[in-house]
Amino acid sequence: MESVLLSRTVSSKIQFQFLMKYLVIAFLFLSCTKQVTKTTETKEPVSPVSPQLPVYYISADGNTTNSGRTPDKPWSISRANNHDFSAGDILQISGKIDEVLYIGREDAGEAGAPLTIQGSGTLKGIDLYNTENITIKQLRFVGEGIMIHQDQDTKEYLSNFIVDSVESSEAMWGLKIHTSGKGFENVSITNSVFHHNRHSGIYTIGNWPEINHRNIHIKNVIAHHNSGTGETNTGHGIVVAGFNGGVIEYSEAYENGSNGDANIGIWAFDAIDITIQYCKSHHNRSKKVDGGGFDLDGGTQQCVIQYCQSWENDGEGFLLFDYGGPNPTKNNTFQYNISYNDARKNTNYGGFTLGGVNPVYNTRLYNNTVYISKGAGVNNGALTFIYGAAMKGLEVKNNIFYADGLGITAYYDSPATMELANNLYYSTKTISLAGLVGDPLFSENLYLTQTSPAVNKGIELDGLPKKDIYNNAITNQRDIGAIESH
Q1: CB within 8 Å of 274: residues ≥ 6 apart
Q2: pTM, full prediction
Q3: Which of 446, 422, 426 is nearest to 435 (CA)?
Q4: Contact at 8 Å (CB) between 180 and 155?
Q5: What distance in Å separates the CA atoms of residue 270 and residue 284, rounded to the nearest whole number?
Q6: pLDDT tens-digit map of 274-306
Q7: How far out from the chain centre does Cα 327 lie?
Q8: What residues form DSSP beta bridges with 108?
């Protein structure tokens, strides 16, 4: 009996020891597993959390006591006008707000962190005063438009303005830039519509007569039905003045100037190095003078109009005229443009109209096509001159001038001294100009047929581009006119 008990005791000890060993091994295994798991977790990359940009909500039904930080607690416009915003802030506009938003120097953004005003709403207007680094997008403005201005105490350039995807109407100016200070630089206006304003769709001017702004880009903009006030120099589509450097492209102006005078669809004056290209200007009107398509006016220097189309305007298709201001008009070029049936109403105009009160130096007309038939005006033609004696150093080369029922040229006064070379003329009237005479044999849309006398008859001139108005490559001898035959 004693041996049996002893045997059971020994057996129990052995079982206990085995159990303890098992528990220790299990504990160690679990501990190692936790440690491995923990180590793996610490090595997993942590995605950085981008800082959330401050958003302020502004609505027609907002008020001054709301936080303004959520869509359901928006500010009123008066509350926003009394707040100093910071670089990188976003103002989200909703509803129709019949008041003007004022943005001042204290609200300025920074390069790379602009103050952004955006949304689906409508404002009466926005006034940007002595400020910079501002982005405005996807908004409508009805009544006061967009005003960007600067006073004489500002001694530095104010930079970086983006206006994109906006609509502005029923104001004096849809958008106006002006200064009495140093000026603005790096202005972009894109993908926008300016219509039914009184003075202009877009209008910029420096501290006149200074040309003190720098770099403007206008692209994919439409300006239409900007009527004019009945006063002189109103009823424009797009006007750029006071800028040194800029491009207006892929834009359109039409049916402006119904109550205008001395107005043009798209033009520049007192400006340097402005290129207007790939634009259309048509059916612009005027109560008195002009009502034309395009213009490089007084004080334009080193400017180019190319690849543009003008048609059915009351006045000239393309104008170059010095109005008598203090800045010289010189070194301007018109190339690869089309004027079709312009000068529909007003007198002394043509597809191209040139002249000036002061001398106009070194103008080049290369590879343009003009088609004109008799309209309601008198003394019109394919190429006309007003105070034409002002033209000094005028070159007219590689152009087609087609006049049905009109003369090729018409003069308000003494004709300019011109260098004519390699132009093709067709008229039902007598032609007394040196050059090629004959029917250009147009096909549809003023394309040349293969048997046209203009085909492969162009001459090479310094700086001419290697493509025509419709982006056709010029690989062989170029044609006369704006369109290459293919």
Answers
A1: 240, 243, 245, 246, 247, 248, 268, 300, 303, 304
A2: 0.89
A3: 422
A4: no
A5: 22
A6: 999 999 999 999 999 999 999 999 999 999 999
A7: 25
A8: none
